[in-house]
Amino acid sequence: MTHSETLIRNADTILTMDDDRRKLTAADILIRDGVIHEIGSNLSTTGNTIDARGCVVTPGLVNTHHHLYQSMTRAVPGGQDALLFGWLQTLYPIWARFGPEEIYVSALTGLAELALSGCTLTSDHLYLYPNGARLDDTIAAARDIGMRFHPTRGAMSIGESDGGLPPDALVEREKDILNDSIRVIDTFHDAGEGAMCRVGIAPCSPFSVSRDLMRDAALLARDKGVMLHTHLAENDEDIAYSLERFGCRPGQYAEDLGWTGPDVWHAHCVKLDGAEIGLFARSRTGIAHCPCSNCRLGSGIAPIRAMRDAGVRVGLGVDGSASNDTGNLMAEARQAMLLQRVARGADAMSTREALEIATRGGADVLGRPDCGRLSLGKRADIAIWDTTGIDSAGSWDPAALLLAGPTRVKHLLVEGRQIVSDSQFQSIDLPSTLQRQRQLARALQT
Length: 446
Description:
By secondary structure, the protein is α/β, with parallel strands linked by helices.
């Protein structure tokens, strides 16, 4: 039987993020059929070879929260300086003009940006479907670029006329939402180890869907064996809305509706209090920490140090490119580290811990222990960082990537397949994609 092999050889440093958190020097990684087959020195192969001399090798980074469709609406005037609710009200009418091509091209652009920052596995939260757009459009983009994908079938069902935030034109009937959730799960979800696509269910937020939909979504997800995702406790407005409309804090709201457990992860959670942190730790509920977006929208600093110390599972998310407004996951990890230091002191979070959150931390939040670490039998999702460039010049510890860089990957492998080589895409025509992205964005401005 013949095997497909790739050897990464002569790496200056390998940060494995394995169970022992080993740091290896002058080491090799042998990949066979998309899986890490051997890690050691002086390994050999008859297959493809990648020279990692002068490089640091890490697991591929994992992004646990994104709105890929938003990469076409960066830095929109009127939303640049607004808080969350005002920002949304500025962007909703623009998003209502999207169609399938805008969703696809925006997703392809956003995925490419993530990949260049070392990301191999990303979730996505698509909660609006204007003019015939479907979740299928983002899944097609991930397939074309070759990234491991965890899309979620988001939804909004309460429009302005019923006291919700989104315009009525962007909401759907709850029966239709549940039926389409079943369709995309049955069509695309792969529960197996090494899956390239898993599907989750993700009603948008407590201020855009009903209690009934939240409860029904949880029942459906558990029936289908898929994960649940939503926004929670993002800022002070979010807390006030929950107290006024539901008579409780967001953590209690989530628990009452079945939205806690190891199959649930919530985005943001900036304003969780101590009791809610304890609830999430006990229930093994995951959190997608989005530090840059939280800064950009003035939401605050999430208590990640307290969460980690309590045992809460935490991953990183770049959030939408209309509220970040970039999609660089390595930069996100650096920001996560810096914010905890600002809030708690310079020893509050190390570079290694922040990188761990960005790799195995995110993989665990998404229920993917087969990803996010470099050890035997795990998926060959690998980022290779060139530390011979100007970013790292003069660095005494190139493995401290979050201090000196780089933030752009040299080589990137997903399931052992090289999708980025020498910082250039092998799987898509990036210049043509960006040209189409600009054309579509300009059309939305007219």
